[in-house]
Design a protein that fits this description.
Keywords: Cell membrane, Membrane, Transmembrane, Transmembrane helix. It comes from Pelomonas caseinilytica. Belongs to the SURF1 family. This is SURF1-like protein. With about 240 residues, the chain is an alpha+beta fold. It is built from 3 helices and 7 strands, in the order αββββββαβα. It has a 5-stranded mixed barrel. A hairpin with a 5-residue loop joins strand 3 and strand 4. Helix 1 packs antiparallel against helix 3.
Length: about 240
């Protein structure tokens, strides 16, 4: 076998090995996401945490259900912009909840409110009781985030909300967790909570895996055809 044929063989084997490995990696990513969803589902059926059970460092409590009591810090409400729900443009309303019997607070992603199509800065009314309320929801690492360029704003309407920076800005002792509210706090507050189910993106990973495996098969097929089969067919 000539040096040129050895080089072609090495390139074909390298390409096939690389594409096959990328296909296996995509399948592994899908398996990891399935395991993550199973862990989330397992946390969801555990008993809800109360005020006393919330850890100050949030360790191991993401995705747990909670039933908390406290008072809204209404003046620190933040409206997260560009959050559609049910096909309509609007905001996610985030308000700190000062926990009863404790000295700290937790951010609560309370629900969705529509945007005024004629005046972006005109915010719809939201009922925020002044007395003690009960909030039912699940724990998340932080409020929902969108991609943004540059530094985030610090006004009432923002694209994203960083809990650590907001704790410094507001002077509140915020826990490093966020409650995604799933039930009303007493009276109806006018917010929607049709939170979308988590999309694991499994079809994307399976699709990419198929493409990589198909490319691997194509590389091997082309090598066999042009280096082994076709030369034999040309022989007299």
């Amino acid at each position: 076998m000539t040096a040129r044929r050895w080089l072609i063989l090495a390139a074909a084997l390298l390409g096939a090995a690389l594409t096959a490995r990328l296909g296996v990696w995509q399948l592994d990513r899908a398996a990891q996401k399935i395991a993550l969803q199973a862990a989330i589902d397992a946390e969801a059926v555990r008993p809800a945490l109360g005020n006393a059970e919330l850890a100050t460092d949030g360790a191991g409590q993401v995705h747990r259900q909670v039933r908390l009591r406290g008072r809204w810090v209404a003046e620190r409400t933040v409206w997260l912009d560009n959050r559609p729900m049910d096909g309509r443009a609007g905001f996610h309303v985030v308000t700190p909840l000062r926990l009863a019997g404790r000295g700290d607070a937790v951010l609560v992603e309370r629900g969705w409110a529509p945007r005024d199509p004629y005046d972006r800065k005109h915010l719809p009314p939201v009922d925020t009781p002044s007395g003690e309320v009960e909030v039912v929801g699940r724990l998340a690492a932080s409020p929902s985030r969108l991609y943004q360029l540059g530094e985030g704003s610090t006004g009432t309407i923002r694209q994203n909300l960083d809990p650590a920076a907001f704790a410094v800005e507001s002077g509140l002792a915020l826990l490093p967790l966020t409650v995604v509210q799933t039930a009303p706090a007493g009276a109806q507050d006018g917010l929607l909570r049709h939170w979308p189910a988590s999309d694991l993106g499994l079809q994307k990973h399976y699709g990419y895996a198929f493409q990589w495996f198909a490319l691997c098969a194509l590389i091997l097929g082309l090598y066999v055809w042009f280096q082994l089969v076709r030369p034999r067919l040309r022989k007299p």
